[in-house]
Structure formats: C-alpha cells, structure tokens
Amino acid sequence: MSAKRDRRNKLASRGVQIAFVLGLVLLWYLGSTYWGVSPILLPNPLGVWDELKDVLGSGEFLPDLQVTLTELAIAFVISCGSGITLGYLISRSPYLIRVFEPLLAGIYSVPIILFLPLYVLFFGLGPGSKIALGATISFFPIILNTIAGFGYVDRIFITAARSMGASDWQMFRHVLLPAALPVILTGLRIGFTVALLSILGSETIASLAGLGHRIVHLAEAMEMARMFAYIVFAVAIAATLNTITSSLERRAKRQ
Amino acid sequence: MMRPRQSVQAGAGRGPAPTPWSAAHPRRIVVALRRSPALARLLVIVALILLWEAAARWWIDPIFLSPPSRVVAELDELFATQGVPGALQATFFELAVAFVMSVAIGLVIGLAVGLSRFAHRSFMPIILLLYGTPQITILPLFILYFGIGSASKIAFGVSHGIFPIIVTIVAGVQNIKPILMVAARSMGASRWQIFRWVIFPHMIPSFFAGMRLGMTGVLLGVLLAELYVSSGGIGYFTTVFTQNFDPTKLLGLISVLAAMAIVLNEIVRRAEIRFGRWRMD
Predict the structure, then answer these.
(1) Total structural domains within chain B
(2) Nearest residue of chain B to residue A196 (CA atoms)
(3) Is there a contact between B258 and A122 if contact means CB atoms under 8 Å apart?
(4) Is there a single domain that holds both residue B35 and residue B158?
C-alpha cells in the first residue's frame, strides 16, 4: 500500500472518530433541547458546561478531591509496602512460590468488592473502609507481579553473577532488581488503577465524603447538570492519574 | 504470559526415608510437604481459617467478627431470613443474563471492529477510551435510567463485561498470521469459507480468554450495582446486617456470594483450558 493512500485512510479514520463523538454530543444537545427528553434524565450539555465551570471556578471540588486522593495515597502506600515486601520474601524460594502464587491468584479472582460491607462494619463509613478496600484490591496485582518479577529471573544470570563472586547486595542491586523492575512497575500501575477504581466505587456505595460520594449526593438531590459536571471531573481526574502513572512506568522502564 | 518453567527441586532427589517410623513422624511430614506444594497450600488455608476462628473467639469483639464455625452453622438461618434466597437468586439471574448479553454483543462488535481495517482504526481508540474510563462514576445514572430492579444491575454488569470481550476478540482476530489468509484466498476460498475455516478456529482461544475476563467484569459490575442499591436485594441485606452488627449473617451472605463467584469463574476458566488451547500442542 502506498504511503499516500495510507495517510488518506488514516485521515478518514480520524474523521470518522471525530464525527462519531460530535454526533453523540449533537444528539445529546438536540435530545435535551428540542426533543423534550426530561432534564432529570438528561441535562442540557450547555447547562453541564456552566456547572462544570462553576464547580472548577468556585473550588467547591477541593475538599472532596482531597479526601479521595488522600485515601488513594494511603491505600497505595500500604499495598506497595506489604505487596513488594511479601512478594520479595516469597520469591526467594521456588517452593514458597509454588505454595503461595496459586493461592494469591485464586483469592484475586474473587470479586474483592464483596469485602466492602465487612470493611464498613470494621472501619465505619469514613475513609478507613475505603483505604482498607483500596489496599486489599491493589495488594494482589502488586504482590503477584513482584513474585513474577523476582521469582522468574533467568537462572543463567544468577549463576553467572554468583560464579563471578557477586555478594548478596550486588546480586540484588545489579541482577535481580534490573530484571524484576519492569514486571513490578506493571504491577504497581495496575495496582494504582484498581485502587483508584475501588476507592471511587466504595465512595459511591457507602461513604461520608469524596468524589464518588458527591456524585451520589447530587444524584439523590436530582441536581443532574451538576452531577454530570462532577462525573466529567471525576473521569478527567482518573484519566489524568492513569496517564501520569503509565508515562512514569514507561520512563522508568526505559532506564 | 511466558514464564520459564521452574526446575523441580525441593526434596525430589531424596527418596523416602527407610520406614521403621510411624506415619506421623515429623520428618516424614516435612518431606511430604516439600514434595507437594498443594498440600502445603491447603495447610496455609486451614491455618488462616483457624486464625480467624481464634481471633473471633478470643480477641475480637463479637459484634464485629464471628468465627467461621458459627458462620457455617448458621447458614440455614441466613437462608431462612425473609428475602435472602430471593435476593441471591436475583443476583444469580442478573449475572447469567449480563454474561450472556456481554458475550453476544461483545462478539458481534469485536468481529465487526476486528475484521475491518478501517473500523479497527476508527473505533478501536474510542472503545479503548471507554474501557479505560471509571464506569463506577456513572453507576447512579444506570440506576436512574433503568430503575432499582434487575435491569440496572444487568446493564451495569454488561457495561463492565463487554469491553474486555471486545478487546480480546479484536486482538485474536488481528493476530491471525496473514500467510494463512493469503494461502486460503490463493486456493480460492470464499469469504465465508475463510471465516469458517481460518478465522473462526483461530478466534476460539481468544474468545474463551475474553469470556473469562468478561466474567470477571460482569461479576464486578453486577455486585457493585447490587451493593449500591440499598433498598432491595443484596445491598439491602448487607446494609441491614451491618447496621444490626450481625457479622454472622453478613459473613454468611458474603461467603455465599464469593462461592457463587468462584464457581462461575471456575466454569469459564475450565472452558478456556478445555477449548482454548488447541494450538498449544
């Protein structure tokens, strides 16, 4: 295929994408403005835009955002610390890997969101239960990837380093860590994403503050335009955080 | 994921010790454990359950945690609670319907997007974008549009289950070696014949992998929606049991749901192993 035709195809795809998105927004606008779709079901996009400007301009979002991000940070620190430490300890012995890896993978396949009612009972409706859920859910991808990273380093590297007289620390620093780091970083990124999702989710289900709580609160108050504005805001925050973590992961892997 | 195979080490070289000892001799137990990680895994599980039992009996306030023995013993009481069997049945029904719908719709969209270069280039970025957004933020909208009954939970389950299925099916269709298509076409295969004899068999492993991921998504979506709606179904009972500080029933309900999830996951995982690996040998 010639380069010119290729470029034309690419442009056409881009055009279809833009047309698709614009068409949806146009349908939304027409539906809510002229076709009489109830504003309780679908607020006018212009109204949502105004509310979004108001939310951002007044700084009303700050307390909720702060709650959500604090919960996320604490949960992620807990799951990183425990996941990487335990994962490293397990990965030191092939026997322990064979005992624990299937066990952890098995628990991970159960929807851990089921723990939420239990955590609400233990830690209350406040940030405690969110942190616990976020830490539990992100613990599993982090520990599993740490085990996979440290546990399956090519034997040849280890034998070579040892036969050249590497100390334990040198072995860790120059052989194990560089080999394991890319896999662990992937685990950290997945862990971060699922922690964010589960914290937003648990705030939606049962909470006192946070972005998820705000969205539910507005839904119950039937303030649809403002709720849509907060949904847009929350999605944008999640997308930004995920983009940052992905680019950090890519940069760290390149080194 | 490719992993180098582990060399079998622990205790494999040593034969069993000569046998004047009784079966319960500590050294024999150690040898048996080293030989069989599965046995050790079972022991870990038993130890965790015993720890839970001990913690619930002696250390933790019984309004927060009840021992597993009591949870199991009072399962029948849970099922005798007015409305609980109905709620569990409804959840199972929602999971089944949401899964079937996700697979059907995901298959159609996945094929449509995967089989055409143009559609792939145009719509795949949009699908990946939607897959990446946290759908939990729009859960209140699902309830608003579909009500608090089964429909909203099914719809939310589908919204979680459909994307992994689409993405894996697209990947499976795209990964077919071009040489196979060229060979089939040069031997004069019709479009249908290419689909039936080249694309379809190559799609099956990714189809089953997609079903497994889809089941994970459906479970998450349906359970999230169930927990969110606190005026009926599972969400109502978890709220009531939590507010009444009744950990026995709460743990019972959670265990039954977890068991349901494990069984459903296991079914699709087995199906994947059974049907998905025809190329591996």
Answers:
(1) 2
(2) B134
(3) no
(4) no
